[in-house]
Write a sequence for this structure.
């Protein structure tokens, strides 16, 4: 496929993804309006359960279930998708300082941070625990919520060490 055709194809895929994301948000919003505040909780639990199962399978296939390997598998591929982050080892765990997230940018652009938070950011703890039952995530800020960065810290639970 030549470069021009590939660019057209990628643009169509992105347009389709944006359309489906907007449609999903509209449907979730309608469900929330009709059925009330339990809907975001159900969405969060469902998305987290799916992520847990997916990352448990990925973790079980790995000889190395460390935070560093999770970052290699989960985060490193995101760089080519426009995510900007730095990783540092610290006494309290493996820290990620994320200063650019295309998902948060999309949420801000389409005016909906709530649902994309549940579908994207809200599954992060389940991903960590699915990948390694002893691995935990602590985060106090997200770009999705309007902060200047996301501050992830992956660590092994004291109960599991």
């Amino acid at each position: 496929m030549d470069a021009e055709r590939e660019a057209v194809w990628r643009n169509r895929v992105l347009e389709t993804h944006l359309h489906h994301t907007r449609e999903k948000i509209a449907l979730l919003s309608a469900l929330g309006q009709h059925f009330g505040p339990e809907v975001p909780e159900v969405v969060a639990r469902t998305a987290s359960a799916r992520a847990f199962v997916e990352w448990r399978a990925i973790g079980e296939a790995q000889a190395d279930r460390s935070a560093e390997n999770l970052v290699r598998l989960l985060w490193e591929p995101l760089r080519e998708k426009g995510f900007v982050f730095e990783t540092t080892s610290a006494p309290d765990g493996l820290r990620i300082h994320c200063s650019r997230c295309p998902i948060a940018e999309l949420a801000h652009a389409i005016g909906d941070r709530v649902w994309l938070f549940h579908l994207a950011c809200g599954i992060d703890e389940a991903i960590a625990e699915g990948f390694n039952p002893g691995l935990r995530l602590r985060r106090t800020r997200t770009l999705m919520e309007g902060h200047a960065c996301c501050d992830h810290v992956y660590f092994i639970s004291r109960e599991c060490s």
User: Anything to note?
Assistant: The longest helix spans residues 3-35.
